[in-house]
């Protein structure tokens, strides 16, 4: 493991704000600002991957249900249409899919919880439908699937104000009936939108696959893959009207790199605290 040393000035100020925000919370002892990366990730950050090795959103995502691994599990690149592609593999020894599914709604109850995940870069993540988080008789997935998280966070040095609309994997073209057979027992998939100017700008895939000592998280981000302006009945597909150079400025190789670095830092950090956090605050424990 190697220490993370990339902390832009705005995030240096944020970590001190977060330290104060969480100080009186019962889970404050899980606020750990020393961050690490696995050394074997470094080569994948030093140069972009071959774009021909990227998979595309839609039915091609079912390749993630095949045994073994793709040729590139961790990497980034820009694509010819100007969009960006990020693929990331993180291992969670000693953790279970139940812990992952619980985390994906628990962290959205109050802003302070989100800071545990990435103390230097996370500002706030709040569920739009707050009532479902504490409604009785629901599974963990029912508390975040179909819900939206309103999120402020730094990706690199840039503050992103986004919304993630969580959907079932089937809505992205993944065969949900085949998940269990592929040892996948958890997911967090969704569409990412910039709140201003209200453009859906990315597709996110997280699939949890069992391993002998816990689980592994296989993530894919398709950045500026299909641009949609607005939401609901007023949504307007503007993708074909946006030329590749403009997409590349919005996302492309630059954002794909920053997304990979962010993903590897936050999920490596989460892997180190999730089992103990769940043991203390999971179902039937301290409600925090």
TrEMBL record:
It comes from Gordonia pseudamarae. InterPro entries: DAPG_hydrolase (IPR041526). Belongs to the DAPG/phloretin hydrolase family. Keywords: Hydrolase, Metal-binding, Zinc. This is DAPG hydrolase PhiG domain-containing protein. Its cofactor is Zn(2+). Residues 60-279 form the DAPG hydrolase PhiG domain.
């Amino acid at each position: 493991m190697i220490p993370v040393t990339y902390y832009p000035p705005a995030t240096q100020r944020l970590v001190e704000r977060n330290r104060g925000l969480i100080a009186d919370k019962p889970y404050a002892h899980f606020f750990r600002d020393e961050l690490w990366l696995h050394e074997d990730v470094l080569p994948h950050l030093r140069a972009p991957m071959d774009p021909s090795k990227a998979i595309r959103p839609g039915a091609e995502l079912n390749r993630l249900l095949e045994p073994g691994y793709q040729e590139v599990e961790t990497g980034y690149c820009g694509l010819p249409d100007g969009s960006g592609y990020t693929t990331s593999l993180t291992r969670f020894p000693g953790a279970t899919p139940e812990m992952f599914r619980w985390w994906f709604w628990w962290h959205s109850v109050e802003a302070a919880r989100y800071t545990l995940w990435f103390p230097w870069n996370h500002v706030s993540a709040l569920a739009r439908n707050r009532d479902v988080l504490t409604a009785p008789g629901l599974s963990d997935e029912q508390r975040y699937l179909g819900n939206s998280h309103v999120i402020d966070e730094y990706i690199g040095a840039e503050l992103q104000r986004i919304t993630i609309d969580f959907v079932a994997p089937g809505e992205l073209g993944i065969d949900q009936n085949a998940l269990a057979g592929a040892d996948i027992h958890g997911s967090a998939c969704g569409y990412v939108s910039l709140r201003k100017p209200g453009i859906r700008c990315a597709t996110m895939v997280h699939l949890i696959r069992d391993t002998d000592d816990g689980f592994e998280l296989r993530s894919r981000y398709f950045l500026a893959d299909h641009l949609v302006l607005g939401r609901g009945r007023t949504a307007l597909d503007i993708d074909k009207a946006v030329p590749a150079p403009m997409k590349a400025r919005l996302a492309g190789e630059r954002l794909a790199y920053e997304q990979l670095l962010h993903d590897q830092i936050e999920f490596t950090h989460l892997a180190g605290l999730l089992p103990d956090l769940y043991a203390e605050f999971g179902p039937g424990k301290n409600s925090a």
